[in-house]
Design brief:
Layout (H helix, E strand, L loop, with lengths): L17 H7 L15 E13 L2 E5 L2 H8 L3 H12 L8 E5 L27 H5 L1 H11 L4 E5 L25 H20 L6 E3 L17 H18 L5 E7 L6 H6 L2 H6 L3 E3 L4 H10 L5 E3 L11 H16 L4 E6 L1 E3 L14 E4 L4 E4 L1 H10 L7 E7 L4 E5 L5 E7 L4 E7 L2 E7 L3 E7 L2
Parallel strand pairs: 1-16, 2-3, 2-9, 3-4, 4-5, 5-6, 6-7, 7-8, 10-11
Antiparallel strand pairs: 1-13, 11-12, 13-14, 14-15, 15-18, 16-17
Helix pairs in contact: 3-5, 6-7, 11-12
């Protein structure tokens, strides 16, 4: 039997580029048989359902809360109502860093005493200054707000480098005594917050487990990540009856498929409640659910951008929501809910925020990203169920809200036009505003 050659390829002309191939790919064509490029048609069937929606979220940071504290009291109240109130974005979740994120005022943890394996010096003192007051104010605006938490880095003394920040030797020390202490640290953090009257609903063991960074971070191999969950965190939580849900993550697809490697382990899949993603393409998320049906998905951080807060970037956040939700996400979480006018991180770069606390103007400014989240949050309610929805011309999603009405979410970047919307076989016509992001409420 003839064997194929060890290398087999077809040479192409240099004129054949990525852009030219994309231009002739089938899904980029507009002249397919029966394709109507003039009339918008949307098909909805609410008898075929997908995931249940659990709400939108936004993160808390020391730098954000410090900036907010420089505004008059009425502007601070306005912020929390705008973010969490029923007439604002109606956020259902707060993303809580365990220790310092890149928008902390400095690198810190709740265990600053080196080699304190029993964590006798564990303390929430730092969180009581900025973070806990933020959470209490959010709870006053929305008593049902929930929290998902993740560390950017373990305490510095637990890492090979001895530092929370910095790229070099950015890994946890793989020592049984140390790993047991870190599981204890996460358990104590949850219990300490509970003592403050604040329940942490979900825990992810590491923000971006694939990423060594200049700011607080920690890089894990999938093998150590799985082993830590099963051999240390699981028995620690069981012994102390911790009911916080543990979710795998947070995962990215920037450097590989660490999520898929972790979920290969059946015991890991049985222990975690789902997979948490950020900075990921929808296709690997879809693949994970094909490999392991029933895997729940949540989204944990939006794209940060560079502090310009443009309307185009806000439209991109809307597009990202559509992609993650179509891939099964139950939660979609913004990153910096509020920053000062400099929009700067402690580690030296600017990022976008939903709101700007402008100290010089003594005013809260609602940025374009906020407008997108307000549009979505006031129309798509927790408990909604995603239903089958398709359009050839428009990217769209549809949910059945708890009140029974449908929430059709789409973008129309063309002129105002009318759409033919078929719901369970019944046709109706819906006017679409031009050059707009839309969340349309429809009676069934």
């Amino acid at each position: 039997m003839q064997q194929p050659p060890p290398r087999d390829y077809l040479s192409l002309s240099p004129e054949i580029t990525r852009a030219s191939v994309r231009s002739v790919s089938w899904w980029n064509q507009s002249n397919q048989p029966l394709q109507d490029n003039q009339n918008v048609r949307i098909e909805i069937c609410d008898g075929q359902t997908f995931q249940t929606w659990d709400g939108f979220g936004g993160a808390v940071s020391e730098r954000g809360m410090q900036a907010l504290s420089r505004l008059p009291a009425q502007e601070q109240t306005r912020f929390f109502q705008a973010m969490f109130g029923p007439d604002g974005a109606s956020l259902s979740w707060i993303r809580l860093p365990i220790g310092a994120s890149d928008f902390a005022l400095s690198a810190y943890s709740a265990s600053e005493t080196a080699e304190d394996y029993e964590l006798a010096h564990f303390s929430l003192a730092r969180d009581r200054q900025w973070v806990i007051p933020y959470i209490r104010a959010a709870q006053a605006a929305n008593p049902s707000v929930r929290i998902h938490a993740s560390p950017w880095s373990p305490p510095g003394w637990m890492k090979k480098s001895g530092r929370m920040d910095g790229v070099e030797q950015c890994e946890l020390r793989d020592e049984p005594r140390l790993l047991a202490a870190y599981a204890r640290y996460l358990r104590l953090f949850i219990q300490a917050y509970a003592a403050e009257g604040i329940k942490i609903d979900r825990l992810m063991v590491q923000n971006e487990m694939d990423s060594p960074a200049p700011f607080p971070s920690c890089q894990w191999t999938p093998e150590l990540f799985v082993r830590f969950h099963l051999a240390y965190l699981k028995p620690e939580f069981a012994a102390h009856r911790i009911d916080t849900e543990v979710w795998g993550g947070t995962f990215r697809t920037m450097s590989g498929l660490q999520a898929h490697e972790c979920f290969r382990n059946p015991e890991f899949r049985a222990f975690v409640r789902g997979a948490a993603f950020q900075y990921s393409y929808p296709k690997p998320i879809d693949d994970l659910q094909i490999l392991y049906p029933g895997t729940r998905i949540m989204h944990t951080e939006t794209v940060c951008h560079g502090g310009a807060n443009t309307a185009t970037e806000a439209a991109g956040q809307f597009e990202d929501f559509l992609g993650y939700a179509a891939a099964g996400a139950e939660v979609f979480t913004y990153w910096n809910s509020v920053l000062g006018e400099d929009a700067a991180s402690t580690w030296g770069w600017k990022q976008n925020a939903m709101c700007t606390a402008h100290a010089e103007k003594q005013q809260l400014i609602l940025n374009p990203d906020y407008e997108v989240f307000q549009l979505l949050g006031r129309n798509l309610r927790p408990g909604a169920v995603r239903v089958r929805c398709f359009s050839q011309l428009l990217t769209c999603l549809c949910y059945r809200n708890p009140d029974g009405r449908l929430c059709l979410i789409l973008r129309n970047l063309e002129e105002a036009r009318q759409a033919e919307v078929t719901i369970n076989g019944v046709l109706r016509r819906v006017d679409l505003p031009g050059h707009a992001l839309c969340a349309l409420i429809l009676d069934v």
